[in-house]
Amino acid sequence: MRSPAADVHNARMFDWNDLRYFLTVARHRSTIAAGKSLGLSQSTVQRRVSELERRIGRQLMARHPTGYRLTEFGEALLPYAERVEAAISDFELRVKDTVRELAGVIRVTCPEPIVYRMTKSSLIDRFHSRHPGLRVEFVTSDRYLDLSKGEVDVAFRSGDTDDELVGRKIADSIWAVYASRTYVERHGQPARVEDLSLHPLVGFDESLSQHRAAKWLREVVPDAKMAARTSSVLGLVSAVKSGIGIGPLPTALGDAEPDLLRVLGPIPELARSWRLLTHPDIRRIPRVAAFFDFVIEEREALKSILTG
């Protein structure tokens, strides 16, 4: 004799697809009409409805001279079957929408030197290979582009960030003080931070006066002898390479230059975290989510690009 527990267990084991046959017969009141609607034979429809009833252990419909009618039990289950049908339909539509949305452009902003290092590596090519419908477009600027206004989709940033943004830490931002080899041969190098006052320095101009490197130089060398001021990190690198003076640089850039020497640091006061950021309103958009997921998987590769 079957136990109630066995009936419950079997009730959970029916094929969800059989609900489609049950619903179609319930609507057409005929297995012939249901078969035509589904593009199947009448016998197939009858067999699948019978199998559903066998699995559930109760009769869902009965044959009458005018066609099939739902039993009282079938009527009770009908709205639940309709909910399942609606949920499956919503699921399928969402899958189709997601596939369509995995196409288009992802606008990415980051410092110009990092753009060069990313494109020089195979990182972006690997992303394009995984998502051939998506394309990364880099947008660079001397100022922070506004994610909340939609100027870009995502940003690689170090230092202070807007509390409104969401993101993940992906690497450390480390800075040190560098000089060219020719500069060191001619003028020597500082042994400590206090010695920076004895050397001509390279730093940011007024447009980047609030950058942490500019603030740090003002604090440790208030009477600095500035040899050059620039409006970009690439400008810092070029000026230091020229031998005109020494200055702070990201280690990812300074260590990559064979003509430069790290003379002080890393400087703890300049250390920050590299983060991948976006606005919360677009974080779950499929193309943005795909880029986030990829970057998080590739954090180890990004460390060499962002930190050096």
The fold-level CATH name of the largest domain is D-Maltodextrin-Binding Protein, domain 2
Number of strands: 12
CATH architecture of the largest domain: 3-Layer(aba) Sandwich
The CATH class of the largest domain turns out to be Alpha Beta
Q: Please tell me the total number of domains.
A: 3
Which class of secondary structure composition applies to the elements?
A: alpha/beta
Output the radius of gyration.
Answer: 33 Å
Q: Low-confidence stretches at least 5 residues in length (pLDDT < 50)?
A: 1-11
Q: How does the major sheet shape up?
A: 5 strands, mixed
Number of helical stretches of at least 4 residues: 13
Question: How would you write the strand order of the largest sheet?
Answer: 4-3-5-12-6
SSE order: HHHHEEHEHHEEEEHEHEHEHEEHH
Q: Name the helicity range.
A: 40-55%
Question: Quick gist of this model?
Answer:
By secondary structure, the protein is an alpha/beta fold. The chain contains 13 helices and twelve strands. The strands form four sheets. A five-stranded mixed beta sheet has the order 4-3-5-12-6, covered by helices on one side. It has a three-stranded antiparallel beta sheet with strand order 10-7-11.
